[in-house]
Amino acid sequence: MIAIKGLSKRYGANEVLKSIDVQFDKGRVYGIVGENGAGKTTLFRCVAGLENHGGEISSSLEPLKNHLGLLLAEPYFFPKITGEEYVRLLCNARGRKVDGIDGRNVFDLPLGKYASAYSTGMKKKLALTAILLQGNEYFVLDEPFNGVDIQGNIVITEIIRNLKELGKTVLISSHIFSTLSDTCDEIHLLSGGRFIRSVRQADFPVLEAEMKQAAIGSRIEALGLT
Ligand SMILES: Nc1ncnc2c1ncn2[C@@H]1O[C@H](COP(=O)(O)OP(=O)(O)OP(=O)(O)O)[C@@H](O)[C@H]1O
Question: Measured by CB atoms within 10 angstroms of the end CB, which terminus of the chain is less buried, N or C?
């Protein structure tokens, strides 16, 4: 469980998160949606302990950052480190030995090659593999499906379902509604620094319809296409 109370974050005059209160429970998958710049990544970075912020973030396993795997939307890798070395480095940081790494290479990555030379999708798969093998309890996945091939997306969807069954807590952001409705128990809509809508599975179609209506409105007519 992760409990967030009065979370606020500003960059200079830009107040990105405004006193957010929310709880993320064990064995549940949460989707975070919101338009570009709404603050999803900022929220995730705060949860992962990468940003100073107002308010409190606590968890049933402390310190939270030692049990949390963060998948960044654009993972960065130091040059001259192979995929295998990266996975081992992250696992060692948690005092975890990785045996039979080749057998656990679910995305068939070229682990002997430099990670910095991987494609965008391969980098994401590598970063995800590493946080999975770390044996985390909490997973914060910023746009995990974006840039990943169809097979990879299918595997990631199954992995998320598996994490839920194992009782892990998973937060995901995505700009593709179906990826969230396939995996999440709840979806929170972030706007103006707050969660303005929080819906459970049964109401996902309602939320999707609302967001579609708000997105399209009369914009297409305004284009005056003929
Ligand atoms: N390091 C930073 N310094 C200053 N402003 C920042 C910084 N990081 C993010 N911001 C600002 O915070 C706001 C939220 O950004 P954030 O990246 O969290 O949004 P997001 O919801 O993840 O967007 P997207 O869907 O485009 O990825 C934006 O206005 C952004 O410009």
Answer: C
Tell me: the pLDDT tens digits for 84-101? 999 999 999 999 988 888
Model's pTM, two decimal places? 0.95
Task: Report the nearest-CA residue for atom 29 of ligand 1.
Answer: 37
Ligand 1, atom 30: nearest CA belongs to which residue? 37
* Cα–Cα dist 188/36, whole Å: 15
Query: How many residues does the structure list for the chain?
Result: 226
Q: How far is the CA of 35 from the centre of ligand 1 (A)?
A: 11
Q: How far is the CA of 47 from the centre of ligand 1 (A)?
A: 15
The H or E element spanning position 179 is helix 177-181
CA-closest candidate to residue 51, choices 175, 140, 145, 174 = 140
